[in-house]
Write a structure and sequence with these properties.
Elements lengths: L3 H8 L12 E7 L4 E9 L5 E9 L2 H14 L4 H5 L3 H7 L8 H22 L14 H7 L2
Antiparallel strand pairs: 1-2, 2-3
Bound molecules: FE2/S2 (inorganic) cluster.
C-alpha cells in the first residue's frame, strides 16, 4: 500500500531533531487525528535554508512526508521553499494512499508556519505567504482531502 520511498523515509527519516536558536520554528496539528509536526529552519542572511530539522508526533505517512519535505527545502531559498507543496512532496515519494493524502498537508503547513515565524522575527514580508493555521482541520474541510 505504501511506495518503497515512503517506507524508506518512514523507517529511516532524514533531518530528525531540533535546531537551537532556529531562524524560524513552525508547529501545526490536525485535531482530528491528534498528530503534530514541528519544523525548525536555519536561514542565512542571504535567505538560503542552510539547515532544517523536524519532529513529528504522528502516523507513518506524516513522518515520511516531513522527512521528504525537509529534503526538498534544504539548500533552497525562501521562495523555492514556498513552492514545496504537499503535492510536490507526495510526488517525490511516488504517491500516498488516498486516505493518507491529508497527512502530507501537515508538512507543507509546518514549513509555512516556520517561514511565518522567521518573517515575524525579522520584520520582513514574504511574498505569497499568509499566516498558516495552527490546526489544518479548516483547510481539510475547505478542500476535502
Ligand atoms: Fe494524522 Fe496521518 S493520520 S497525520
Amino acid at each position: 500500500m505504501y511506495s518503497e520511498k515512503v517506507m524508506d523515509h518512514f523507517t529511516n527519516p532524514r533531518n530528525v531533531g531540533e535546531i537551537e536558536n532556529a531562524s524560524g520554528v513552525g508547529t501545526v496539528g490536525n485535531a482530528k487525528c491528534g498528530d503534530i509536526m514541528r519544523i525548525y529552519l536555519d536561514i542565512s542572511d542571504e535567505g538560503i535554508i542552510r539547515d532544517v530539522k523536524f519532529k513529528t508526533f504522528g502516523c507513518g505517512a506524516a513522518v515520511a512526508t516531513s522527512s521528504m519535505a525537509t529534503e526538498l527545502v534544504k539548500g533552497k531559498n525562501i521562495q523555492q521553499a514556498l513552492e514545496v507543496t504537499n503535492k510536490a512532496v507526495m510526488e517525490a515519494l511516488d504517491g500516498l494512499p488516498p486516505v493518507k493524502v491529508h497527512c502530507s498537508l501537515l508538512a507543507e503547513e509546518a514549513i509555512h508556519a516556520a517561514l511565518w515565524d522567521y518573517s515575524k522575527k525579522h520584520g520582513i514580508k514574504i511574498e505569497g505567504l499568509e499566516e498558516p493555521p495552527e490546526d489544518i482541520g479548516e483547510i481539510l474541510e475547505e478542500e476535502e482531502y
